[in-house]
Amino acid sequence: MLKRNKDHQSKRNAVKAYLRQHRTVICWGLLILAAVWCLWYARPLDIYDLMGCEEPANLSVTVSRYSDLNHPGNLSLSAGEPEMDAVLERLAELRFHRNPLEVVLPFLPWNLRTSKVELEKEYQILFHAYDQLEDPVLYLNFNVTDWHWGQRERLLHLVHGQEKGRELGAFLLEMAQMER
Q1: How far apart are CA 90 and CA 61, in angstroms?
Q2: Could you report the per-residue pLDDT of 117-144, keeping only the tens digit for each?
Q3: Sorting pLDDT into bands at 50, 70 and 90, what band is 31?
Q4: Taking a C-beta distance cutoff of 8 angstroms, is the pair 123, 63 a contact?
Q5: 121: left (phi over 0), alpha (psi -120 to 50) or beta
Q6: Is residue 28 over pLDDT 90?
Q7: Do residues 72 and 60 touch, judged by C-beta distance below 8 A?
Q8: What Rg, from alpha-carbon coordinates, does the chain have?
């Protein structure tokens, strides 16, 4: 028993000595690994990457202007409809980026980022996409300046995201009003 403890302790000391000797290399390796992961995680994604499938069977869209939230436009589209193809085409043009630091974002103050908001020009857009089995494959939300996806509302970044949201909101609201 005493010999077993002594062997175990000598192995532990050998590992500690090895780690101390190669600490710099290990730290650089971990740093490079973290940088590669951040680059991979923040790569541009389209809606098909976010959905994880080729094309949804159904798409439900609710869009409203902030100046008139009580009268939203609603679209319920199915695969094969020209309207759904048009909406998916517009969404496919967008390239989203996930923030690799989203783990720490909830702990940062919200007032670090500012943007000019003109409520009469702003939209709120909710997308719900479903597969053939009616399982949700995408939840995408645009709210004034921010894009979110997934049930946990993970933040997405989009170059000129506010302008793209306004353009998409105007397109979708016009399409919803034509459908009425």
Answers
A1: 13
A2: 666 677 888 888 888 888 888 888 887 6
A3: very high
A4: yes
A5: alpha
A6: yes
A7: no
A8: 24
Q: How far apart are the first and last CA of the chain?
A: 83
**pLDDT value of position 30:** 92
* Token reading at 131: 């597969």
Identify the residue whose tokens are 């000019």: 116
**What value does the mean pLDDT of the chain take?**
80
pTM of the model: 0.69
DSSP per-residue letters across the chain: -HHHHHHHHHHHHHHHHHHHHTHHHHHHHHHHHHHHHHHHHTS-B-HHHHHTSS--SEEEEEEEEGGGTTS-EEEEEETT-HHHHHHHHHHHT--EEE-TTTTTGGGS-GGG------GGG-EEEEEEEE-TTS-EEEEEEEETTEEEETTTTEEEEETTHHHHHHHHHHHHHHHHHHH-
pLDDT at 170: 87
Amino acid at position 112, single letter: L
pLDDT digits (tens, 9 = 90+) for 46-77: 888 888 877 888 989 888 887 777 788 888 88
For residues 179 and 87, give the distance between their C-alpha atoms in angstroms, rounded to a whole number: 14
